[in-house]
Amino acid sequence: MERMKLNILGLSEVRWKGAGKITSGGHEIIYSGGTESEKGVGIIVEQTISKAIKGYWALSDRVLLVKIAGKPVDLNIVQVYAPTANRNDKDLDKFYNDLDTAKTQCKFQDPLIIMGDFNAKVGSDKVDDIVGKYGLGIRNERGEKLIEWCQTNNIIVGNTWFQQPPRRKWTWKSPGDETRNQIDFMMISKRYRNALLLAKTYPSADCYSDHVPVVGKFKLKLKKNSKPSANIKFDLAILKTNQTIREKYQISVQNKFEAFGDAEEVEQQWENFKSAIMEAATEVIPKVKRKSKQKWMTEEILNMMEERRCAKGNKEKYEQIHKKVQEKCNMSKENWVNEKCKEIEQQRKHAPQTMYRNIEEITGKRTFLSTGRLKAKNGDIIIDKEKILEVGRIHKRTL
């Protein structure tokens, strides 16, 4: 995401069980899967925008809705993974029913972006103001159904409206690269057509997939979250494990407090004491280092990944490098986890605060089996976090 400068990334066929969210490397990952490790969709939101997420609804292992606070209206994003051609009509009908349900959660005036693998070909023939003339290939039956749904719901197929060379249109290639089709789409509400500035594929992106990413550029205003002043975090656990720093800190606090002199007012005494503590901590106690990304990632692996990306045109070489990358990643992660476990064992008695921080670092902050919704007494579905909390507070008062 950082390399391609993406703020939001949609994923199809995630193959994660259950539904929920996880924070990794500062990014929020919201996912929706089933009981088996198949199908599944997800949306990754980078750190600055993740703070504006109002809520989400994991409707099924094929449809996920995320609502983001905007200005003056909210942004709704739906990630999909439509049934393949070998699935029956019942599966396809359920998919479109889930899509209809997701749309009912979006206000008419709010922009709606729908993206993902539709397993449908809309072709290059223009259809009113729904499908542009810059699609790819010949329309099929699934494509007809998708267009029909878009016409009913006033949605345009975004990546058919921008003139691009064929290599910037195809989104999927068959095994052996015999066929290339456009079956992944980025769609938006018709009334926000002008908010979509560009949509095209990036075949050079290294995703190790038979699909290539469709990237859209949008001009939409999201709500700014007021940034609280960053609190300095000191590594207080070191006072228990390092006697030299502990004694130095105690002396520093005492000297600074005495330097303030006697104060008659209790409030002034407290302010002096607080200042002495903070000044001494700033001088003596090291700060907690903020780290991001995968801690086990090495420069060697990053270089190998770049080499793999450059080898996309040579399938045999690409597969060889990919295998080495996987082996290096597994080995590096295993070594990192083993080292962390040793640290945790040592910290168990003397530094429990640091121990829990390390445990969280290994396991990640993850919420399991949460669809992100609440059903109100009147039958309405609520996905807005603030509204869910308010319902909870009202319910608590009635107990």
UniProtKB/TrEMBL annotation:
Question: The Endonuclease/exonuclease/phosphatase domain covers which part of the protein?
Answer: 76-214
User: Which ranges form a coiled coil?
Assistant: none
Any Pfam family the entry gives: Exo_endo_phos_2
Q: Which domain of life is it from?
A: Eukaryota
Q: Which GO MF terms are attached to this record? A: catalytic activity
Specify the protein name. Craniofacial development protein 2-like
Which species does this protein come from? Plakobranchus ocellatus
What lineage, starting at the top, does this entry show? Eukaryota, Metazoa, Spiralia, Lophotrochozoa, Mollusca
